Amino acid sequence: MANPRLKIIPLGGLGEIGKNMMMMEYENDIIIIDVGLMFPEEEMLGIDLVIPDISYLLEKQEKIRGIVITHGHEDHIGALPYLLPQLNVPVYSTKLTNGLISVKLKERRALSGAKLKVVPPGGQVTLGKFKIEFFPVCHSIPDAAGLIIYTPVGTIVHSGDFKLDYTPVSGKPTDLSRLAQLGAQGILLLLSDSTYAALPGYTPSERVIGETLNHIMADTPGRVIVTTFSSLVSRVQQVIDSAAKHQRRVFIVGRSMSDTTRMALELGYLNAPDGILARIDELKGMPRNKIVFVTTDSQGEPTSALVRIANRDHRQVHIIRGDTVVISATPIPGNESLINRTIDSLFKQGAQVLYSQVAQVHVHGHGSQEELKLLLNLVKPRFFMPIHGEYRHLSLHAKLAQSVGMLKDDIFVMEDGDILELNPQAAKITGKITSGNVYVDGMSVGDIGSVVLRNRRMLARDGIVVVIIAVNRQTGKLVGRPDIVSRGFVDTRESKDMLDESRDLVARTLDHSGSRPAEWSFTNTKVRDILNKFYYEQTKRRPMVLPFMVKV
Amino acid sequence: MANPRLKIIPLGGLGEIGKNMMMMEYENDIIIIDVGLMFPEEEMLGIDLVIPDISYLLEKQEKIRGIVITHGHEDHIGALPYLLPQLNVPVYSTKLTNGLISVKLKERRALSGAKLKVVPPGGQVTLGKFKIEFFPVCHSIPDAAGLIIYTPVGTIVHSGDFKLDYTPVSGKPTDLSRLAQLGAQGILLLLSDSTYAALPGYTPSERVIGETLNHIMADTPGRVIVTTFSSLVSRVQQVIDSAAKHQRRVFIVGRSMSDTTRMALELGYLNAPDGILARIDELKGMPRNKIVFVTTDSQGEPTSALVRIANRDHRQVHIIRGDTVVISATPIPGNESLINRTIDSLFKQGAQVLYSQVAQVHVHGHGSQEELKLLLNLVKPRFFMPIHGEYRHLSLHAKLAQSVGMLKDDIFVMEDGDILELNPQAAKITGKITSGNVYVDGMSVGDIGSVVLRNRRMLARDGIVVVIIAVNRQTGKLVGRPDIVSRGFVDTRESKDMLDESRDLVARTLDHSGSRPAEWSFTNTKVRDILNKFYYEQTKRRPMVLPFMVKV
Is the ipTM of this complex over 0.90? Predict the structure, then answer.
């Protein structure tokens, strides 16, 4: 392929949900789009968060002109506190997104020195050879943007996270006419959100939730407790509107919901009629049919408000028989069973629980198949790269593009680290860079590697047996009987005889071999093999066996 | 409540999915309905299976007249190999169910001595004061039965797992007219399947899958690989029928699928036209559009065929670009992410994957809301107890019963162990017995308790640090420097300095305290506290800290 070329490299979010990050490189200029985090998957034991590996970017640090953020969700901004101090470049975003980034950086003490720039809707920024225009899209947070990126090889459209909602509750509909205009002028490449590429039809408008809320507020004689994402400002707006209509007052509960609501009110993204919002000390004596609580989050982490309420562990909200709980959200993948247990517990306490499987109390924020096809039809890109999704979502999105007439060879289903090179006539995957997961566990970033995780998985399955072997420093002979400490393997009282037998087995093995200090690695392996075999025969379990020699 | 009374006690399956088991007691007679197992939930680390606690039953062993099994799924028969040898009573079931029980008992070497009795569809057995009639119901396995239980206090209908399918592929439709007849005569109590009580509408007929399969077999130029439950004999029948129509031959792959298919053919539950079924050695040279594989299971356990195929780890089936994989099943709750990764991997290898979210390739085996209401309307029970489901399913089912006119006080939403007592006029929850989970891990049943599990959870989160402290047997003084062994906590090379520092910290602590053997429990606590604090400060992690003293 002839020079000069544009390189596009996804650093996260392709082949997985979350951790969205991408870079574009042209000659001496690099821009970064989104810097998100991912919540750990089930097998990432003990890990708190997952962020992208940016070692490749750090080698080219002097070329990086800036970071562009599409919207304020964790999977697009959450890694900034960890990575921005290393990258140290300006961050461009719309007003609410900028506010959320500030909050996030402040929480992690990474705000000082950060260069945060607000871009108005429809505004443009120039970063080296790249000119970037922010166009409004609908998503489950206000002020979400797609990007039109003017590059020396052609124009690129990046959808951001989007859906088409012609009657959004807050914010503007996705700017389809701007996209149609651009489509007519010729777009080199479309990058488009694949999260819901498996879902047929159209994603319903946020409006439908308003109707459900109105029914609930009118019909239930008890209190209404709504849980949702704190960033889903339009949902909070709907609760306020519906409460106002039915003479109920709204209690905003929980720090995250209070902080976000306050900011959204100040920045003008949320409107509350006078006297609707109530302080928790006004609760006492208020009739039940006048009360609405709004709280975060419904994701079911053990610290979350809903789980605390269900466990009767919440400072301010306790379930009373006759309450109606509305879970206006879908669980993060992997959290389903915790949420289900929470719902069960609320039912047991006499609450009526409305969740997305039984009532229309949530619509998601991503376009379904018909919306994705509409975008492809309007933009009419020369090339297409599905982004944001696991591999099946990207594959299904590619098939949608074929169904609207694109050629298979013009569609690039990529994975993190793949390099797509483009010139005005051609596009090609030309290689792969190092990319992947960096684990955040406690205060450390990146020190947890595959060995630690493999060990945690072994420990989780069948526990551990530590064998302590004291030997004489001079003679190398066994001193006393080997000791055994086990945890998570068997009930140590019930299995005392079996464990004792294994101590004797080790003693016999060492006496016979007449082990000497020099031969420790041999002894170690031998003890391990013998115990692995013995324990498996006795229990059909495979604990981690760890011989340890003490020289005395 | 006046004597004599009937007691009904669920021992499993209420408040959880799986592990279905129930007992009914009248004077000197006890019958047991179903003896199922449950697959472990996420937090039951390292556990293989979960079975019901039958300690209450074992106290009344001489009263037990027999076990009645509704159908051959694991969650209804799976605990028999573990519990039947203890209970040692006859087991009554229909023909296919009986065959599956034999296979299960044989696998676990529990067949000898088992008294298995076949009951024909519509047949009756008398067990003490109970007379039990098996009536055919539709479910995702042939020969499924509901039960009509004639007792001295009145007639009870137990739905089994059921749906209404007026055009089933194999077996008979649910016998609605028998139920209507009984309803007219008066039913004291209905026990009905709540698994899909959250789903509005009707469950589609199995027939719709046949149409999808016909399209796939006709349209794809490549091989078709269908994965489903081996017990879903009707689905295998549909694959065979569709293959025959499109001149494809069917390869049954995998031991479980081969065994079940062979048995179903022999017992007449499956029909294959001559020459349709092929042996794997006939595969070579066969055109791709003539090939269908059927394999189990699609539940995504690492040993399962689908995962092995996706990982290129299967002896007989390797994905070729252009293959179509049909996942004709829904994942067991908790297995979703493994299944999703498997689908991703199949897409990466160039297969087209059809799964229930993107195509009508599976219908489930339980009735939805309208079917549940229809059953309530036909049976018209005096009392109602929703069974089979987590608490929210039971609660929603109770609300359905209220919506068709039952009174709240006549509906009993119970949990495992609750005792429902009935006489011809009244029903009441009168107490609770000990019930719960018994864990099977490796070859042991029941020795894993909450301590072992709590330890595994701790180990899984932040690993373990064992501190080995050698002291002089006579003086009680420290010998040498304390040793530290850690696994799953930190990268031991990168964190060598920190771990060394913690050794010194222990040494200093022990020198100061001048520990003596008698004070070990005090020293132990002290070392643990100091290290917990030190490690948390250094890493924000909380490994399990385990001091161990070696006397030399």
Answer: no
